[in-house]
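Researcher: I'd like a candidate sequence for this fold, 307 residues long. If you have to choose between options at a position, lean toward the conservative one.
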């Protein structure tokens, strides 16, 4: 006997599906993205029922979403919904797959901001920093520029994470900066747990500014920390230095890019950044790697011509 097609409201089914399959199984930051999709679904299609889901109604839903979002964001919205829809299909709550041969649309992408600085621009930025005797956001910017740490990783650093003699920072956790109470959380992936070498000067500087601090508490934060705050500070510094404006995450890209240009291997850069695998690094910095390969080809040809 076939199951009866459900007349449940789509957004309610989706909310229940998140609680059943995703809650407690994925990171909070990822779970929040699913709940954001749920809110948008309720806004765009408050009366749409599972029994009314077909290729036309689903395409209209995506089209409505795409009117105010870029194509890649619409694709993410679709992927979140499709996972729940396929489960509804498997459970007999709908008859056919409404996502089949769907067309992804979207607004024209905004002009992309520069993601990283060159060496001269970074030097100009660092000259603007006011590095006093106590930790502040300028020290935070210097730290990220010299280590390539993720924002949440750098926020979670405690004095105990520094080995000043061996010039090493040990990354074992992140800071839950989006929530009022803050708190430590696991790293993005197991590979993100790593030792990051730092230069002698940075080691001595942080040894001085962290003296007397609780060795187990974060150096820069005690609760919630808005990344918009640090980006506003960074924007001001970029304007003062008369260089392109980048974000705090852009400093991570800058760090990796400069290492690659200096001839550091992709494998070593991937390990320093805490990427899950070298493929992530290759995809992220493909344009730089290709540029370096072209230079290498010139060197090969020059060498061969000498034989």
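Model: Candidate sequence:
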């Amino acid at each position: 006997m076939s199951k009866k097609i459900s007349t449940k409201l789509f957004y309610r089914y989706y909310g229940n599906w998140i609680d059943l399959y995703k809650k407690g199984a994925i990171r909070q930051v990822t779970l929040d993205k699913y709940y954001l999709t749920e809110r948008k679904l309720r806004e765009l299609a408050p009366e749409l029922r599972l029994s009314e889901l077909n290729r036309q109604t689903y395409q209209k839903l995506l089209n409505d979403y795409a009117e105010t979002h870029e194509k890649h964001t619409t694709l993410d919205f679709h992927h979140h919904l499709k996972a729940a829809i396929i489960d509804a299909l498997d459970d007999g709550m709908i008859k056919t797959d409404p996502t089949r041969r769907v067309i992804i649309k979207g607004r024209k992408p905004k002009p992309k901001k520069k993601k990283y600085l060159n060496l001269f621009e970074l030097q100009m930025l660092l000259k603007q920093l006011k590095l006093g005797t106590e930790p502040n956001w300028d020290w935070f910017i210097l730290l990220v520029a010299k280590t390539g740490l993720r924002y949440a990783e750098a926020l979670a650093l405690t004095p105990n994470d520094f080995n000043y003699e061996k010039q090493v920072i040990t990354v074992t956790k992140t800071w839950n900066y989006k929530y009022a109470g803050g708190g430590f959380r696991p790293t993005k992936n197991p590979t993100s747990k790593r030792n990051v070498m730092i230069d002698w000067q940075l080691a001595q500087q942080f040894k001085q500014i962290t003296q007397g601090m609780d060795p187990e508490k974060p150096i820069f934060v005690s609760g919630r920390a808005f990344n918009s705050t640090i980006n506003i500070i960074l924007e001001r510094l970029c304007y003062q230095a008369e260089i392109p404006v980048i974000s705090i995450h852009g400093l991570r890209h800058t760090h990796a890019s400069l290492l690659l240009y200096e001839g550091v291997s992709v494998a070593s850069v991937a390990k320093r950044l805490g990427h899950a695998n070298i493929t992530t690094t290759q995809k992220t910095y493909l344009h730089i790697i290709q540029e370096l390969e072209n230079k290498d080809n010139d060197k090969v040809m020059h060498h061969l011509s000498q034989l």
